[in-house]
């Protein structure tokens, strides 16, 4: 049986795409997530789940004067979700609800509509540029920011 050249080309392309997706920068972010774990007695705790892949992120946080003062995240996600949580963890302390919502919305546009990299102070999301083509991973990438935004919402309207 002869090898199928079309199948070989598709496999090579897929391998190349995956190599670009899982760059050294992205894997370094995923391996070094700041503010992991759980907080003792947080003001709010939110768990988000990406239904397609099953990734979860639980965020605990405290907010004073409209700014995040304490934050922890328990990340059970793929390397892409871990990398996004890593970027959030590096910048979340001192952020307002508006800044987190803006970052989440900019990251959504960046992934789904080929928009620009999210603006300061959330440097680092550029490592996720190759993930644009992997739509099934977008929900995992957005989990940590979504959970943080929902945390602010929960503080306004507790259960």
Automatic annotation (TrEMBL):
Family matches, as InterPro entries: NIF_FeS_clus_asmbl_NifU_N (IPR002871)
Example GO biological process: iron-sulfur cluster assembly
Superkingdom of source: Bacteria
GO MF entry, a single one: iron ion binding
Protein name, entry field: Iron-sulfur cluster assembly scaffold protein
Species the sequence originates in: Celeribacter ethanolicus
């Amino acid at each position: 049986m002869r090898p199928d050249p079309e199948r070989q080309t598709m496999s090579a392309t897929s391998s190349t795409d995956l190599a670009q997706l899982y760059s050294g920068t992205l894997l370094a972010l995923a391996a070094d997530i700041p503010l992991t774990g759980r907080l003792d007695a947080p003001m709010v705790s939110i768990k988000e789940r990406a239904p397609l892949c099953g990734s979860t992120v639980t965020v605990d946080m405290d907010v004073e004067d409209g700014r995040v003062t304490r934050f922890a995240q328990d990340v059970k996600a793929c390397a892409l979700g871990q990398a996004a949580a890593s970027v959030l963890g590096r910048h979340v302390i001192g952020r307002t609800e508006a800044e987190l919502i803006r970052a989440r919305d900019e990251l959504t546009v960046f992934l789904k509509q080929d928009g620009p990299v999210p603006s300061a102070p959330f440097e680092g999301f550029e490592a996720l540029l190759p993930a644009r083509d992997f739509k099934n991973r977008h929900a995992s990438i957005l989990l940590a920011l979504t959970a943080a935004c929902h945390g602010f919402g929960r503080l306004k309207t507790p259960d």
